[in-house]
Each structure stands twice: as C-alpha cells, then as structure tokens.
Amino acid sequence: MATFLYKLGRLAFRRRHFVALLWVALLTLAGVGAASAPAAGNTSFSIPGTEAQKAFDLLEQRFPGMSADGATARVVFKDGHGGKMTDAGNKATVEKTVKELGSGSEVASVADPYRGHAVSKNGTVAYASVKYKVSGMELEDSSRDALKAAAQHARDAGLTVEVGGDALNATPETGSSEVIGIAIAAVVLVITFGSLLAAGLPLLTALIGVGIGVSTITALASTLDLGSTTSTLASMIGLAVGIDYALFIVSRYRAELTEGHEREEAAGRAVGTAGSAVVFAGLTVLIALVGLSVVNIPMLTKMGVAAAGTVAIAVLIALTLIPALLGYAGRKVKPTGEKSRLLGGGRAPKNPGRPNMGTRWARFVVRRPVAVLLLGVVGLGAAALPATSLELGLPDDGSQPVSTTQRRAYDLLSEGFGPGFNGPLMVVVDAKGSARPKAAFTEVHDQIKGLNDVVTVTPATPNKAGDTATITVVPKSKPSSATTEDLVHAIRDKGTDIARDTGSTVFVTGSTAMNIDVSQKLNDALLPYLALVVGLAFLLLIVVFRSVLVPLKAALGFLLSVLAALGAVVAVFQWGWLSGLMNVEQTGPVMSMMPIFMVGVVFGLAMDYEVFLVTRMREAYVHGESPGQAVVTGFRHGARVVTAAAVIMIAVFSGFIGSSESMVKMIGFGLAIAVFFDAFIVRMAIVPAVLALLGRRAWWLPKWLDRALPNVDVEGEGLRTAADPDAEKELVRA
C-alpha cells in the first residue's frame, strides 16, 4: 500500500492543476445539486420492532386520521394576578386562543380546556391540547411560528402562557460552536507548524471536504429522507477528521523535508507513510459509523452512513488534494522546526540540541513504565466508578433550562395536575380477536386502575368498528422517573394475562413509553455494536501492525477511556458535580443514546491517534531500532502532531457545552472528555508504558498468521528498500 500511495502522492504533486480542478469541480457540482434539490421536510421518525411503534402503526390502521404519532403541544394558561382561569375574562381569552390555534393547515385537533376538563381543581391552571397531523420532526416552521404567535397574543391579554410538548422541539443551532472550534483549531495549527500557510492547508481542505459532504447530503435529503441532524453530525465528524488527516500528512511532509528529500519526493513519502495511517484510521471510523446500523433505528443509520461518506471524502482529500496544494505552496512550507519570518523564523534556536517535549516524555515513560501504567489505569478506573450507577433515559421538557417555555409549561402542569401529567401513557387494546371486545376494554381499564403509581385512568374510547380502543393513563411520577418506567412494564405484564384471558392484545405507547422503548433498544444494541466495531477494528489493526498484542492493547485502552468518560458524564449530569460550572440546571438520567454514540465516535477518533503514533514506532522498529528506542522515536515525530489533533478535537466538541439544549451539552462534554482521556492518558501514557514492558513481544505474530495476512506495508518499508536495496538487509522483522 505504501508504494501505491507514494506514487499517488507524487502524481498529485506533479499534476496539481488537474487535482485541484477536480476537487473544485466536485465541490461546485455538490453545491449546485444542493441549491437545485427540492426542499426536504424534516425526516420521518420510527423505531421498528418496539411495542410503542407497533401501537402507533395499529392506531394508523384502526383510527384513520387520528395521527397517533403526530406532534403535540400543550398551551398552558395561568392568571398572573392570582385569579381563576374560570373567570369570564380569562375564559374568553383562552377560547379566542383555542380558535386561533386550530387555524393551521397541519393542525389535526385542538381540545378546549373548558370542554375537556383541562382545568386544575383549584382553577388556577388550564391547558389546551393541540394535536398535529405530522410528527414533531416533520412539522413545518410556519406551524411552530403560528403556535408561538397564538401564545403571545394570550400573553398580551394579561395571562401567563407557556408552551410544552414536542411541537417546539426544533433542531438546535450549532453554527457558532463550529466557528469557535475552527478558530481554536487555527490557533493550534499555527503554533504547531509555525507557519500561517502550513496551518491553513488542513483548515482549507477540511472545509472543502465538509462542503462536498454536507452539500451532497442536502442534495439527497429529499430523496433519502435525511433530516438536518444528519448534516450536523456529518459536518462535526467531517471537520474533525478532515483537519486531523491533513495535519498528519503535512506534518510528515515537513519531516521528510528535514531529512533532505526534494519536495516532490517528500510529498510522495508523506502520502506513502502517513497516508497509509490515514487510510486505516479512516477505515476504523467508517466501521464505527456504518456499524450504527445494527441498532436498527433508521434515523441513526442514515446519520452514520452520511457521516461515514464525509469521512471517506476527508481521506481522499488528504491523499490527493494535500500533496497538490503542497506543490502550489513550494518553499513557503518549511521543514520541521523552521518557522515563517512572520512568526519568528530565522532566529537562532535557544537550545539547539535539546530534545523536544515528546522525546523527553517518552524517555521518562520507558524508564518508569510500571509507575506510569499503574497511575494511568488507576486514574481512569477512579473516573469510571460513577458509571456503575449509570441511569439511562431520554430527555423530556423537565430537563430543559428554566429559561425555556417548555420547562415553564412543564412546571405549571406539575403544579396544577401533578408531575405524572406531563407524561401520560396511551394504552391501545386490540380486541379484534376477542369474542367480547367491550368486556376486554373494561377488563383492561379495571386492571390498570388497580396498579400502583396511577392517578387517573380514562374510560376506553373505541373506534368505529368497535374492535380497538384507547385508554389514557396518568402516572403519579414524572415521565423520566424509574417509577413511571416500572408502571409501563407493569401494564405490559398485565396485558399478557389479559391477552390469555380475553384474546385481546394490549400495547402501551405515547411519548413516555416510546422513550422507554428507545432506551431499551439502545441498551440491547450496545454490546452487539461494541463487539462488531471492536472486533472488525481489531482484525484491521492486526493487518496494520502485524501484531496481536498491539491491537488488543488498543482496544482495551479504548474501553477504559470510554468507561472513564461515561463516569464523568454521570458525575456531572446525573449526580450534579460541577453542574454550576457546566451550567447544568437539571440533573437526571443520562441520555440513552450517549453510550452507543460515544463508542462509535470516540472509537474512530481514538484509533486515529493509535494508528498514527504506533505506526511511527513500528516503522522505527522494523528499520532496526530497539523496542524502547522505537517508542521514543515514535513520540519524537508524532507526539506534537497527536497533541495538536487532540486539542483541536477537544476544542470542537467543547464548543457544544455552551448549548442551551441539555442533550447537545451532554454530547459535547462527553466527547470532549473522552478524547482528553484517550489521547493524553491512554495513547500518551498507557500505550508507551505497555510497549516498553512488552519489548519485542509487543510485535509478536504467529508465523502461520504472518503468512496468511496481506502485507500492506504501512511503515513504508517498500519505499526504503526501493531507494536503497542494501537497506533490506538491515531490517529487523518482528
């Protein structure tokens, strides 16, 4: 592979005009496609295989036009002066607002609070329920605007009005976060390279890659039913790996210049060596992202595949466009250690013979591997301890900041009707196979009424055919509580007995039940997903490193860093540690998507650092250095680059901590702390300590497996022997 990539790098350097035009053409084509594509609505949302989804599908068949999975909004009213909502003036204002709420084209129904018994017992709080024909993710902005306008008109009339439900759950804006991340990345790159031009290349190529990827997603959004969250994830991951991969190539190019190679030769060697690491690092990210399909949540699958496509573009750009741009840059990109005159170049170094920080750190680790290893493992183990009490769930309006109207509506409903009122359960009874449907409906109603944690059970509402009915259940506890989850399971257990006695089938659905089912589905998929991703990457890394122990160490180190990161998330968002610093206003269960999302994203990024750092060590080892010296050599050339890449990654993800959305805040914090743990503790401390302890055994591979594996030559051995045939005699094979 190294030889092929070497030729590709030299070709791109020589034919830079053609390569640059090709990528500009692709960017233009993707941009035109995005601009001319039909406007895509929000993506549809379904969770195949869950009981809640089966109930929604059944309601669509048996209750046509009901829009069972349609968006909902609760417009909550309270007299700010302490009056009753039953007063004549307040009643007139509410009825006028209800009429205004029902005028939208996507509105299926609006329930008048005075006709639907939606006024609290003390008369201080009332609410109007708005049901939409489409789900919250499909709702048009015009419908959201009309909802906000109606609420504002009621406020203008003197009432306190707040809006809850999923109708206002728009995708959070992240543009400012990305700008902050790019700005910090630019500063880090300038410090790393000591040159504005060299620093600008990774940023430029990463933005081109993200532009092509996101434009392509936009162009295909209508055809493939892709939502805005798909392009958000693709841009975040594409930007991160695009900068990283270009950083690796440019850094190796400067190192090759330092060794005295001509610029075209240096570009070829940079792509042949660092480019090989980029290819395999990119493959691990692709495996992690495409592997999200095992969860069997269509939206998650589309997000993973779209992000994987953007990563593939980033790999191709690093292998072709970077060497082409290096050809344009010429002598303006200087060898390692030299700075541009603008940034202090031309001055005599203060300590010309002093080893760099990476070399000094590696020598320290090689001298004291046991102490470093124990300190690293114990430290991460301590950080992982809170993960033993991990509670998973999906956020509801109760986890929103108190500054939002959703949270204030949630609190008003809890005040007037009890906390469980914010998460009613819908029980669907399918009595088509029952000889006595009405008796089955009554039996279900009576059985549920006798359960603990139930406040209200409405009478069964059958469809026109009389073979299916819905029953609304209001729990005592809030939607995200473990008690409410137990109630859902209790109703389903009762449903099993009722099905046996009456021949009817009982389903529990609604947003609360759907959240519980999604959490369970994600929990069940975590171990298979982890086995698939880690297993395939383990096999891939065996091919890369031609070793069994190095890939095993890489996988175990990754698991340790992810557990430590989950522990930190639990400590902050579930226990409330440092919640003031992180501006976490409401603690509660960790988002159920968090573990599997962290495994996918962090694994791919962690393997970037592993492949780039350890391939340098492998390269030094096969070229004759002792195992300990190979570790030092790998750090001398790679530590600065990996550190810069990790700092950039942490900066990009940390920008999301400032979001008002608790889910986005949690993802940003979790990914940032996971990259910190993995890059600086696992890859920079535990990895060199383990390699120093193992010595030559680290590179052991059974002979039969050595013969069976393809020789991909990541360390560039073929380039060395091609340039110097006598060098083959000096090679030391593991």
Structure description:
It is a single chain. This protein has 734 residues and is an alpha+beta fold. The chain has helices spanning 2-14, 16-36, 51-62, 88-101, 141-156, 175-193, 196-224, 228-258, 263-290, 298-329, 357-367, 369-384, 405-417, 437-449, 482-502, 511-545, 549-574, 594-622, 627-654, 662-694, 703-708, 717-723, and strands spanning 72-79, 107-111, 125-132, 159-164, 392-393, 425-430, 454-457, 461-462, 468-475, 505-509, 590-591. Strands 6, 7, 8, 9 and 10 form a five-stranded antiparallel sheet that branches. A hairpin with a 5-residue loop joins strand 8 (461-462) and strand 9. Helix 9 (263-290) packs antiparallel against helix 18 and helix 11 crosses helix 19 (627-654). The protein is elongated, with a radius of gyration of 30 Å.
Structural descriptors:
single chain, 734 residues, alpha+beta, five-stranded antiparallel beta sheet, four-stranded antiparallel beta sheet, elongated, disordered C terminus
Task: Give the helices and strands, then pairings.
Layout: H1 2-14, H2 16-36, H3 51-62, E1 72-79, H4 88-101, E2 107-111, E3 125-132, H5 141-156, E4 159-164, H6 175-193, H7 196-224, H8 228-258, H9 263-290, H10 298-329, H11 357-367, H12 369-384, E5 392-393, H13 405-417, E6 425-430, H14 437-449, E7 454-457, E8 461-462, E9 468-475, H15 482-502, E10 505-509, H16 511-545, H17 549-574, E11 590-591, H18 594-622, H19 627-654, H20 662-694, H21 703-708, H22 717-723
Parallel strand pairs: 5-11
Antiparallel strand pairs: 1-3, 1-4, 2-3, 6-9, 6-10, 7-9, 8-9
